[in-house]
Amino acid sequence: MGKRKRIGKTLATVMGPVLIVSMLGACSGEEKAQTAAADTTQTAKTTDAAGQGTDRETAAASNFKAGTYTGKAEGKEGEIAVEVDMSEPAKIDDIRIVGQSETGGIGAKALEQVRQQILDNQTLTVDAVSGASESSSGLLAAVEDAVTQAGGDVTAFKSGAVTKAGEGKTEQLQADVIVVGAGASGTSAAVAAADKGAKVILLEKTATIGGASNLSWAGKFFNSSAALENGLKVDEEAAIKEWIENNHWRVDAADIRQYVAQSGETYDWLSEKGYKTTFINFAGEQLHMLPAYETREDTLRAMLKDSVEKTGGQVLTETTAKSLTTDDSGAVTGVVAEKVDGTTLEITGKSIVMATGGYAANAEMVKESFGFEGVNGGLGQNVGEGLEMSWAAGAAVPDNFGGQMLHQTLARATEHLKKQYDSFEASYPLMVGYLPNFMNVGQSGARFRDEAATLEAVAAANTSAFNGPYHLVVVSQSQLDALTKQGMNGVKAPSLPGMPPEFYADFADRFKLDTPWKNAQNVFDDMVANGDGYKGATIAELAKNAGMDESVFTQAFNDYRAAIQSGVDTEFGKNKAYLTPMGDSGPYYAVIAEINNLGSVGGLVVNTRFQVLNDDRVPVSGLYAVGLESEGVLFNDTYVGNGVGVGYSFTSGRLGGSDAAEAALGK
Ligand SMILES: Cc1cc2nc3c(=O)[nH]c(=O)nc-3n(C[C@H](O)[C@H](O)[C@H](O)COP(=O)(O)OP(=O)(O)OC[C@H]3O[C@@H](n4cnc5c(N)ncnc54)[C@H](O)[C@@H]3O)c2cc1C
Description:
FAD/NAD(P)-binding domain; Flavocytochrome C3, Chain A, domain 1; 24 strands
């Protein structure tokens, strides 16, 4: 499949711009300068408490001053501020994180881990923590800012490397079932296998259990007991037929049938184990909201404790699977993995379950397989390692490889605007992307859909992706004025933007159709000033500024205006209620709406026992796959199912783990 991008080697490259900014900036925070360093470059050996050390040129430049410096840089969720104590000769004595808003759990843990590694190894070349690369690089950049202010030689600090205590060491382990990846699918597989009596080793690259399910909203469990109790029963045969037809029959009908028929039991299985989901009738769809975000990981850990750990198995976090081992017959016999301290694990097992969540964070692989360069809204650590090692062990690359879970559009403007405005105001460009009342055009300027597609998240993202990684939402001055005065009622929005609840959680009180969009003019002008959108006094100027083809956009605009006037959209048949007038003159704005990819779909072909198949569609002995990596059997090249991501991950894990255990135990 060509060359694959590898991430997380060093963070040196991402720190350049911060360095330049900080070198120009004045010393901030409390500075207790003591003595000027000698005007020479010295050689020093730094040694940490564990006796690990690294020889390097000292980081003392001629103007180095020992003291305490405050460094700042952007993390994933906002600014990270650190106080760094530095002593002669340019040694980092302590780092205190005095400000940060990184995601609780993984982000905060990553900051502590990187902080300790900088201190122990006296280096600014530290590997990003898996799953928290932006938090890791933010902390490194903040410390670099402080070191620069002290006059430290950043280049020298980057020449040292982290010494890993386990490097060169190898440990041997043995299990009946080895599960790789602890998202919803891997955790369920490990629990189900242990419940069958198998000794299980679960490997997880990050420090977190739960993967993308920890970020998700709801799952689909067909005809669960809760759905039936609430009076919503679906016709399973009709659902299966429609599903297969919608995917043009290029799917595995037996796998679809199994999911539809058996996912209901997953609801009860999870409930019995303490992972309680809540049924909702979502316009006729049987969705089940996942437990409160902050409780999920603990619940999954408790499930593992009661099963895997109780039966003599192990849950090894911060342990990355690197390759599979095979015997002379080609059967998969184990996993080679690496612990965070560098120790190599050679684990033998009878059944190996791949549950590594795909490759959405591997931009090159997504581009190569799908032709798309959108935003990765999935987990940063999912770079396709599980697929690569399975293919190397003989698994087939599916004919429909490349499917993605395109589920939302995002305004490029939001991140910058959140630094200037409160969440509600910063989300104006995001919200217009979810309303059917605005003209949408592709990058050429051509209109490409009935904008009512925005009322369905999946349809919206997929129609947009058909045109490229982003589209433009055109907002006229008169529409902006109407929003400013009367909120979304001003443009006759039929309903609130259909965004996931977490998008508006921190402005739920103002998320109403009649809340005036105060400051909208400034927000849109700042969006343009920030380079995250476009403005033109005329249609021609907007086309020029946004890089659209002027004649294509002018034609599209004139056609759309004619549709507004006549109430008949001959091109796309948009309901006239959404053909909101745009006024007679500019200026006009174009919001950049990018597609958010929540995950890749597929990569391994499985049968109904979740055995991975080879090019002859025969099982690769010993190898199983669950979750996203096996989900290509349900979809063609595009994910279309609300709640299927979560529903299938738990269900395939529950069933596949059990199958893998039965095979391992000879049942
Ligand atoms: C923001 C967001 C919101 C979503 N909302 C919904 C929703 O509301 N409803 C829905 O149905 N779906 C939703 N989804 C999709 C759904 O969450 C996923 O389809 C599902 O959780 C995937 O589960 P998984 O176990 O297959 O993979 P993951 O959850 O990705 O788990 C894979 C695990 O493998 C680990 N791993 C990766 N490589 C290695 C390696 N080499 N060695 C060891 N471990 C490794 C990863 O660290 C990760 O923990 C959402 C996804 C995202 C990102």
